[in-house]
Design brief:
The complex is a heterodimer of chains A (248) and B (260). In chain A, 32% of the residues lie in helices and 25% in strands. Chain A has 248 residues and is of the alpha/beta class. Chain A has two domains: 1-76 and 155-248, P-loop containing nucleotide triphosphate hydrolases (Rossmann fold, 3-Layer(aba) Sandwich); 80-151, no CATH class. In chain A, the strands form two sheets. A six-stranded mixed β-sheet of chain A has the order 6-7-8-3-9-10. In chain A, strands 2-1-4-5 form a four-stranded antiparallel β-sheet, covered by helices on one side. In chain A, strand 9 (206-211) and strand 10 form a beta hairpin. The longest helix of chain A is centred in the last third of the chain and has 18 residues, at 169-186. The two termini of chain A are 33 Å apart. The relative contact order of chain A is 0.18. Chain B is mainly α and 260 residues long. Chain B has two domains: 1-37; 41-258, no CATH class. Chain B is built from nine helices and no strands. In chain B, helix 2 packs parallel to helix 6 (140-177). The chains are: A alpha/beta (248), B mainly alpha (260). The interface between A and B is medium-sized, with 24 and 14 residues.
């Protein structure tokens, strides 16, 4: 479904991605783990075309992501951003229905609102939230609204960028469960980046460890604890000693 | 080698300046190119018209009113040195319409609108809202830049027109209430002295200044660095650039309209 082959990206002298190779099969949930600043978000943004890789090939369903109709390509994706990235000036329901109110997927306003409220309900928010502005919501509620927006147009592929960052453990658990449920019921292909191990265990079918710009290990989540990879072991147990430098 | 160092610095500064001009030129061309390429966002355009036009009226009106009044006082005081007090209505009219109206409205819009656009878009950038727009199949230039630039270009001539009228009215109030001018004579002298070219130049300057003000806000916002400092720098840079470009454009347009 999604394949990255020798993807490289540098910002000035900082070589963030040094040849990432990764395969995410259709309908599976891949979680990329790794320390802060190791290029997880950059890898995700390269797939979406938000960042242009310097070298390498990124394919979705065997097609180079740089070729073909860009709008049609992006219409297949939903994305939950780390901070929610909700549009401050629009009420919650218009944030959720943003894609449904313009472009190829445009629906009548009343129908778009109805779908938005349904999606809000799906992520555990009451309809009275619909007319509030994002700034009136708590961090956890904003994440849920971001999740509702990501699934509003029922995309085939959903990306989650640090879905539980900044949330308390209970809310993080709620978001993890929601993501798992939604990905399963929609049959979507999911890519999540996180360094929250509870998220990894709740969301992942497969895990990839990104460090120093390359995938150090990848495999099913059930094998992660017994991977035998020193990078993965150090990371999942949160140890200061190991091949990953604690001071970066 | 030390002797060559200043030349090296000058060369680097020149290259950086040329690169900045090139980036701005590309951004301008991209903005204009979206004028003829759908989709368009009429709701965003309407919102920008309201924000830039309607909500700027109080600041434009007050600026013009006080400037017109002060101009009348200055011309009267200066003119009295060589018994030319009677030219107050004519000079207030020509001063407001040709220069002070467009320039002051342009600068007030740079302060109020350019800063607001730059801060808003820069904040959207650092909070990944611009990336979110892209993932939702919405081109940020079409959704954010074009409506604002188009609205400012279209509404600024109206604002300048309003500023001109209020500025002249400020001069009229001071002239009739403080300096003893006859109201009818003042208005007749004002109307007789103004030419169509004065009004056209004023409105044309307004359109150009509006374009510059909104474009600078969008350009600095879209190219903002990360964090609060990035937003602050983008906002400051946009206002400074807009003000300088407005004053430079004013000189060029004045030369074009009135040099003959």
């Amino acid at each position: 479904m999604i394949r990255l082959t020798d993807v490289q990206k540098a910002f000035g002298s900082n070589r963030v991605l040094r040849g990432v190779n990764l395969h995410v099969p259709k309908g599976t949930s891949m979680v990329i783990i790794g320390g802060s600043g190791t290029g997880k978000s950059v890898a995700l943004k390269c797939v979406l075309g938000l960042v242009t890789p310097d070298a390498g090939l990124i394919e979705v369903d065997g097609k180079d992501v740089r070729s073909g109709d860009r709008d049609a390509f992006l219409a297949r994706f939903g994305m939950l951003f780390q901070g929610g990235a909700l549009f401050d000036s629009l009420p919650v329901w218009q944030n959720v229905a943003f894609r449904l109110m313009r472009g190829a997927l445009k629906r009548p306003k009343a129908e778009a609102r109805e779908i938005a409220i349904e999606k809000l309900r799906r992520v555990g928010l009451k309809p009275d939230v619909a007319d509030k502005l994002p700034a009136e919501l708590s961090g956890g509620m904003q994440k849920r609204v971001g999740l509702a927006r990501a699934i509003a147009a029922e995309p085939e592929i959903i990306f989650f960028d640090e879905p539980t960052t900044g949330l308390d453990p209970i809310m993080a658990g709620v978001i993890n469960e929601l993501i798992r449920e939604i990905v399963t019921e929609m049959g979507a292909t999911a890519m999540t980046i996180t360094h929250d191990m509870s998220s990894v265990r709740a969301i992942a079918d497969n895990v990839a460890m990104l460090h120093e710009g390359v995938i150090k290990w990848t495999g099913p989540v059930a094998q992660m604890d017994a991977s035998g990879d020193p990078y993965v072991d150090q990371f999942i147990h949160g140890r200061a000693e190991g091949p990953i430098e604690a001071v970066r | 080698m030390r002797l060559l160092a200043p030349i090296g610095r000058l060369g680097r500064a020149t290259l950086a300046l040329l690169a900045a001009i090139g980036r701005l030129a590309i951004f301008t061309a991209q903005t204009i190119s979206h004028l003829v390429r759908p989709p368009f966002y009429p709701r965003e355009f309407g919102h920008a018209l309201l924000q830039i036009g309607y909500f700027s009226l109080p600041v434009v009106g007050l600026t013009a009113l006080f400037t017109g009044g002060a101009l009348a006082l200055q011309i009267y005081a200066g003119g009295s040195r060589f018994s030319a007090e009677a030219v107050v209505p004519q000079i207030v009219a020509i001063g407001m319409v040709r220069e002070l109206g467009p320039v002051l409205v342009g600068l007030m819009i740079a302060a109020r609108v350019t800063s607001s656009i730059a801060a808003e878009i820069a904040t959207m950038k650092v909070t990944e809202q611009i990336d979110a727009l892209v993932t939702l199949s919405t081109h940020p230039m079409k959704y954010l830049t074009l409506p604002r630039v188009l609205a400012a270009t279209l509404v600024m001539p109206l604002l300048v027109g309003v500023g001109d009228v209020i500025g002249i009215y400020g001069g009229f109030l001071v002239g009739t209430e403080r300096l003893g001018f006859n109201a009818t004579t003042y208005l007749t002298n004002t109307a007789d002295f103004l030419e169509l070219r004065d009004i056209v130049s004023s409105l044309a300057k307004g359109a150009v200044f509006g374009f510059i003000a909104a474009l600078m806000g969008c350009y600095y916002g879209m190219n903002s660095a990360r964090g609060a400092m990035g937003v602050g720098r983008a906002t400051k840079g946009s206002v400074v650039a807009a003000a300088i470009l407005i004053l430079a454009a004013n000189f060029i347009l004045t030369e074009a309209f009135f040099s003959a």
